[in-house]
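Interim report to the steering committee. The following record documents the input for LBP_cg2779 family protein (63 residues).
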Amino acid sequence: MELPLSQLSEKIIAFERDHHLTDNDLAFGSQLSVERIHNIKSGEATPTQEELQLLKKFMNSKA
């Protein structure tokens, strides 16, 4: 999931919409904090490789 930050944000938003999830659901499932999810989605923070892996693992589990 090596995407520019804006594409990652769009991917997260689409994933939440398609799976009827909230930021809380995504945070719980990916083991990241809600605040971290918000910051990544808004472009205020760049996720670490570990965070990207956690997001990818959770998103792939719902595919």
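The chain has a mean pLDDT of 92. The committee is asked to note this result when reviewing the revised timeline.
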